[in-house]
Amino acid sequence: MTQEILDLTAPTRDRAFLKALVPDEKLRVCIQCGTCTASCASAYAMDYTPRQIWRMVQLGLRDEVLNSKTFWLCSTCYACTVRCPRGIPLTETIGALKRMAIARGIRRYKESSNFYRAFMDVVRRYGRVDELELMVRYFLSTNPLAMIGYTPLGLAMLTHGKVTGQEGLRMAPRLVGVGRGGRLNALFRKVEELEAEP
Ligand code: SF4
Ligand code: SF4
């Protein structure tokens, strides 16, 4: 966790950040009790704890928040959300942080953002996760050579039936990145439309 002193006089403070992130501004009622941090199994690895992140959002520290790795490490377990005494939709807000960072092209933790993108593209295509294609898409978008290092692990998993595709065990994934068609295409398009609305 980060112990740095944040500059609250920085000109980059964005007073509209909270509203842009949570339209109903529910985060304003956070009382900094720390229950979210105490409930979070990933907090130990974050640079700012969930409680710190919510205070930073309140203070308009947009750049510091969007460049942190905190929200990328969220596993969407909802523990913080169900325990927050103020009923703040924290997990949804973390999802909004991920979307905002991607929309602004913040690439500091591109391995994480690329993983999410690959995951959603595969789900859009098949309606479920296709593990083999997910891994191929992810490595192609980050570091294709890294795939070589994972070959022994991949082969071991394949032979034990731990990596399957749409029709069960198979050695080669389909061609990736072909078109935007898919079983959940209509649903994804609708969400994109809704999110594009002002
Ligand atoms: S649990 Fe809720 S009220 Fe407490 S610090 Fe976290 S967000 Fe704020
Ligand atoms: S939803 Fe994310 S931030 Fe909240 S407790 Fe779970 S991992 Fe932590």
Q: Can you give a write-up of this model?
A:
It is a single chain. The chain has helices at residues 17-21, 35-39, 50-58, 62-66, 79-83, 90-103, 110-126, 131-141, 146-149, 151-159, 185-196. With 198 residues, the protein is an all-alpha fold. It folds into two domains: 17-103, Fumarate Reductase Iron-sulfur Protein, Chain B, domain 2; 110-174 and 183-196, no CATH class. One iron/sulfur cluster is lined by residues 30-36, 51, 54, 84-86, 88, 90.
Task: Sum this structure up briefly.
With 198 residues, this protein is mainly α.
Question: What is the secondary structure topology, with strand pairs?
Answer:
Layout lengths: L16 H5 L13 H5 L10 H9 L3 H5 L12 H5 L6 H14 L6 H17 L4 H11 L4 H4 L1 H9 L25 H12 L2
Helix pairs in contact: 7-8
Bound molecules: iron/sulfur cluster (SF4) (2 copies).
Class by helix and strand content?
mainly alpha
Q: Give the strand tally.
A: 0
Strand content: under 5%
The name of the CATH topology of the largest domain is Fumarate Reductase Iron-sulfur Protein, Chain B, domain 2
Bound chemical compounds: iron/sulfur cluster
- Overall mean pLDDT score? 84
Largest sheet: none
What gyration radius follows from the Cα positions, in whole Å?
Answer: 19 Å
Listing every helix as H and every strand as E from the N terminus to the C terminus, the arrangement reads HHHHHHHHHHH
Shape: globular
